[in-house]
């Protein structure tokens, strides 16, 4: 069964994209791409026929297909240049086997919250595993499925990309340009570090939010007014607890080790607060609260980089495997945000990597780390008018 819509004219760097799994994230991604680049041919792949019909009716996909539909294979074989795996991790292996059987040579990325399992599967199954670039948009909603999807879901959100030494140099710039065109900001992170990092900033907080709801629910039976008082900060703190239990159970077990370590550390932190209260140690409690308050105030209120203060970084380099992943990871570790990235090939074996940075992060630290890594670096300020990627 297939669903089709008439094509449009405008195109992005990827002309034919297949999104496998048209839930909240997959549908929002397709919607965002079609909103910014309406000429892109978009195939929606999902197990639910109603979702596919809705995707085409909304204009978020030009075609829809069930996973076993020949339409999926035809779309991949006839020039698809990007496959986005937005299905649950348990289903991804089957989709990877389909791509392998069709000898897909384009770029494959994903949207999963964990990377160890999916990276291992891609390396084991795909005939061209170097074309797999793990991805993770740090955006979501308490609403699930296509009904909760929206084209602005990724505006201002972080989108993690995990290139490695085997990733072809052009893959990261292409994905970076696509993702940033949707309003997201890209962070490059080694895939082996990803799961531990997101356990702290995403997975542990979800368990904590669920725990707070358990605490409140237990006492609400005795005090009917309690839930009426649960407004403001409590609602903000527990919003994510409304997410899909099945989805989050899968995420938790996929990241069991890192999540377990994070929860154990969290138990120790909560224990420190409890110990200060039990020992009537006001100084210790004040210090704990002050440390947290200072760290929270240090977080930026919003991502609003100045478009008038841009910096171009030019890095002559040998065109060798892993060099783009190395540079982009160092850039992210220095807190610098890449507005755009280009590779200018000088000879067959040499190139110049050009990064345009916004006014974020520690440029001095970035320079030192790149020099220590053996790169020659030059910096020059740009204005928005000199940089065509800036609106």
From TrEMBL:
<dbReference type="InterPro" id="IPR046826">
    <property type="entry name" value="PDH_N"/>
</dbReference>
<dbReference type="Pfam" id="PF20463">
    <property type="entry name" value="PDH_C"/>
</dbReference>
<dbReference type="InterPro" id="IPR045865">
    <property type="entry name" value="ACT-like_dom_sf"/>
</dbReference>
<keyword id="KW-0560">Oxidoreductase</keyword>
<protein>
    <recommendedName>
        <fullName>Prephenate dehydrogenase</fullName>
        <ecNumber>1.3.1.12</ecNumber>
    </recommendedName>
</protein>
<dbReference type="GO" id="GO:0008977">
    <property type="term" value="F:prephenate dehydrogenase (NAD+) activity"/>
</dbReference>
<dbReference type="GO" id="GO:0004665">
    <property type="term" value="F:prephenate dehydrogenase (NADP+) activity"/>
</dbReference>
<keyword id="KW-0827">Tyrosine biosynthesis</keyword>
<feature type="domain" description="Prephenate/arogenate dehydrogenase">
    <location>
        <begin position="15"/>
        <end position="307"/>
    </location>
</feature>
<dbReference type="InterPro" id="IPR050812">
    <property type="entry name" value="Preph/Arog_dehydrog"/>
</dbReference>
<dbReference type="GO" id="GO:0006571">
    <property type="term" value="P:tyrosine biosynthetic process"/>
</dbReference>
<keyword id="KW-0057">Aromatic amino acid biosynthesis</keyword>
<dbReference type="InterPro" id="IPR008927">
    <property type="entry name" value="6-PGluconate_DH-like_C_sf"/>
</dbReference>
<keyword id="KW-0520">NAD</keyword>
<dbReference type="InterPro" id="IPR036291">
    <property type="entry name" value="NAD(P)-bd_dom_sf"/>
</dbReference>
<feature type="domain" description="ACT">
    <location>
        <begin position="312"/>
        <end position="385"/>
    </location>
</feature>
<dbReference type="GO" id="GO:0070403">
    <property type="term" value="F:NAD+ binding"/>
</dbReference>
<dbReference type="Pfam" id="PF02153">
    <property type="entry name" value="PDH_N"/>
</dbReference>
<comment type="pathway">
    <text>Amino-acid biosynthesis; L-tyrosine biosynthesis; (4-hydroxyphenyl)pyruvate from prephenate (NAD(+) route): step 1/1.</text>
</comment>
<dbReference type="InterPro" id="IPR046825">
    <property type="entry name" value="PDH_C"/>
</dbReference>
<dbReference type="InterPro" id="IPR003099">
    <property type="entry name" value="Prephen_DH"/>
</dbReference>
<dbReference type="InterPro" id="IPR002912">
    <property type="entry name" value="ACT_dom"/>
</dbReference>
<comment type="similarity">
    <text>Belongs to the prephenate/arogenate dehydrogenase family.</text>
</comment>
<keyword id="KW-0028">Amino-acid biosynthesis</keyword>
């Amino acid at each position: 069964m297939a669903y089709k819509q008439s094509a449009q004219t405008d195109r992005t760097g990827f002309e034919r994209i297949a999104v496998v799994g048209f839930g909240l994230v997959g549908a929002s991604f397709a919607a965002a791409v079609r909103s910014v680049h309406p000429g892109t041919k978009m195939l929606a792949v999902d197990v639910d026929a109603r979702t596919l019909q809705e995707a085409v009716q909304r204009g978020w996909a030009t075609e829809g297909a069930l996973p076993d539909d020949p339409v999926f294979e035809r779309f991949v074989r006839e020039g698809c240049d990007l496959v986005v795996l937005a299905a649950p991790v348990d289903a991804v292996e089957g989709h990877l086997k389909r791509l392998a059987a069709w000898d897909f040579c384009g770029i494959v990325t994903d949207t999963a919250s964990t990377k160890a399992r999916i990276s291992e599967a891609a390396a084991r199954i795909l005939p061209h595993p170097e074309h797999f670039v793990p991805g993770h948009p740090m955006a979501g909603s308490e609403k699930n499925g296509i009904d909760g999807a929206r084209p602005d879901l990724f505006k201002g959100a972080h989108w993690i990309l995990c290139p490695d030494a085997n990733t072809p140099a052009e893959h990261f710039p292409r994905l970076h340009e696509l993702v940033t065109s949707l309003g997201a900001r890209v962070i490059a992170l080694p895939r082996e570090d990803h799961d531990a990092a997101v356990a702290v900033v995403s997975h542990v907080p979800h368990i904590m939010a669920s725990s707070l709801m358990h605490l409140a629910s237990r006492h609400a039976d005795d005090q009917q007014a309690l839930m009426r008082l649960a407004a403001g900060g409590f609602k903000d703190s527990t919003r994510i607890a409304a997410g899909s239990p099945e989805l989050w159970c899968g995420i938790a077990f996929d990241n069991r080790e890192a999540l377990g370590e994070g929860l154990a550390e969290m138990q120790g932190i909560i224990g420190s607060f409890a110990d200060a209260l039990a020992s009537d140690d006001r100084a210790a409690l004040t210090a704990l609260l002050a440390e947290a308050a200072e760290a929270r105030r240090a977080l930026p209120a919003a991502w609003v980089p100045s478009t008038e203060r841009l910096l171009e970084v030019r890095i002559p380099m040998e065109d060798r495997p892993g060099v783009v992943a190395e540079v982009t990871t160092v850039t992210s570790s220095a807190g610098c945000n890449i507005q755009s990235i280009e590779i200018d090939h000088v000879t067959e074996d040499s190139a110049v990597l050009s990064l345009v940075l916004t006014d974020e992060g520690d440029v001095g630290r970035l320079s030192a780390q790149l020099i220590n890594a053996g790169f020659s670096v030059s910096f020059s300020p740009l204005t928005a008018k000199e940089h065509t990627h800036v609106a």
